[in-house]
Amino acid sequence: MRIRPDGSVEVVASEGLRPPVTGLLIVDQSLYVSHRGKVSVVEDGRLRDIVTDLPSEGDHQNNQLALGPDGKIYMGQGTTTNVAVVGVDNYIFGGWV
Fold first, then answer.
1. Helix (H), strand (E) at residue 15
2. 9-10 vs 30-35, strand pairing mode
3. How far apart are alpha carbons 28 and 18 in whole angstroms?
4. What's the gap between Cα 10 and its chain centre?
5. Which of 42, 84, 85, 89 gets the highest tally of CB atoms within 10 A of its CB?
6. Distance between CA atoms of 89 and 87, rounded to whole angstroms?
7. Domains assigned to the chain
8. CA-CA distance, 10 to 3, in Å (whole number)?
9. What separation, in Å, do the N-terminal and C-terminal C-alpha atoms of the chain show?
């Protein structure tokens, strides 16, 4: 959402958003959004995915977008579990042998 100087609120984009939103970055008037398993850019009120299928179904997701001095966008990628212990809460996401 965007909050205008007069206090009014505008929804910038919502369709296709996979919570939690873990990072926002504005570069050259484009808004980039890091959300569960994806990085997207907002175009004409819609999200266009630019990175997909990130391993973000566990405890820690992709997050914290940053613009580097080289003009490239960087992000963090978290781990699926804490201390490599797979609890029932993470087991349901699959991929564990």
1. none
2. unpaired
3. 24
4. 20
5. 42
6. 5
7. 2-91 (2.40.10)
8. 6
9. 41
Q: What is the pLDDT of residues 13-53, one digit of tens each?
A: 888 898 889 999 999 999 999 998 999 999 988 999 999 99
Amino acid residing at 90: N
Q: How far apart are CA 17 and CA 94, in angstroms?
A: 22
CA–CA separation, 1 and 11 (whole Å): 4
* pTM of structure: 0.79
What is the pLDDT at residue 65? 96
pLDDT classification of 92: cutoffs 50, 70, 90: low
Question: What's the rounded Cα separation, in Å, for the pair 8 and 5?
Answer: 7
Residue 39: is it exposed, middle or buried by C-beta count within 10 angstroms (0-12/13-18/19+)? buried
What is the Cα gyration radius of the chain? Answer: 16
pLDDT of res. 95: 54
Place of tokens 């613009």: 67
